[in-house]
């Protein structure tokens, strides 16, 4: 249990805390933040901060593991699992809150688990499916889109730009494309496994 794996576990532990603040409506919270027509509850602000904190640890644990030669099999298992749990939990919560269309959540979550399955097939063959450029772009767009949805489109609501809606659509499209890209580039794994 080295430092990168502890960071990854901390990311997983932050998920239920984030969901607690996002989904539980307590009457004793302070009044929501008001700024003209903009409104954001304190508990949703806390959930957004926790999400951003958890998402920021994604790159940190991998960087430390590679730089200090601390890559472990446990880390290879936990890191992608933590990412998928975080994204899945927050997207399902946003659907529950009526801030994200269910089909978008289903598309994104399905892609995440499909690529995880592909990686498992690769491991059975003794190969590693490395993160692609499109996979990294997908991660960034998902974090941006989810953050905007959690923050009620702050600050773009003030200039009447629905960037939260644009970003989540972009995240869904890039997620689909990156998933196709993974499967096309690794089709020999599927052909070998079906042989």
Structural key phrases:
195 residues, mainly alpha, Four Helix Bundle (Hemerythrin (Met), subunit A), two-stranded antiparallel ribbon, 7 helices, 2 strands, 73% helix, globular
Structural description of this entry:
Helix 2 (42-67) packs antiparallel against helix 3 (73-96) and helix 5 (133-150) packs antiparallel against helix 6 (163-185). The protein starts with a helix and ends with a helix. It has 7 helices and 2 strands; from the N terminus they run αββαααααα. The chain has helices spanning 3-23, 42-67, 73-96, 102-124, 133-150, 163-185, 187-194; strands spanning 33-35, 38-40. It has a single domain, classed as Four Helix Bundle (Hemerythrin (Met), subunit A). Belongs to the CDP-alcohol phosphatidyltransferase class-I family. Pathway: Lipid metabolism; Phospholipid metabolism; phosphatidylglycerol biosynthesis; phosphatidylglycerol from CDP-diacylglycerol: step 1/2.
């Amino acid at each position: 249990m080295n430092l990168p794996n502890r960071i990854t576990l901390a990311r997983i532990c932050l998920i239920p805390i984030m969901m607690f603040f996002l989904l539980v409506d307590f009457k004793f919270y302070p009044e929501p933040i008001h700024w003209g027509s903009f409104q954001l509850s304190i508990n949703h602000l806390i959930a957004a901060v926790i999400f951003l904190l958890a998402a920021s640890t994604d790159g940190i644990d991998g960087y430390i593991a590679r730089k200090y030669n601390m890559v472990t099999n446990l880390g290879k298992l936990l890191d992608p699992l933590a990412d998928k749990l975080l994204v899945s939990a927050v997207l399902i919560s946003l659907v529950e809150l009526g801030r994200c269309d269910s089909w978008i959540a289903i598309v994104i979550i399905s892609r995440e688990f499909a690529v995880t399955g592909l990686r498992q097939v690769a491991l059975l063959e003794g190969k590693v499916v490395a993160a692609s450029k499109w996979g990294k772009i997908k991660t960034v767009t998902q974090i941006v889109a989810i953050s905007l949805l959690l923050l009620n489109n702050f600050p773009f609501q003030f200039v009447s730009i629905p960037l939260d809606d644009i970003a989540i659509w972009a995240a869904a499209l890039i997620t689909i494309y990156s998933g196709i890209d993974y499967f096309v580039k690794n089709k020999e794994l599927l052909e070998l496994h079906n042989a």
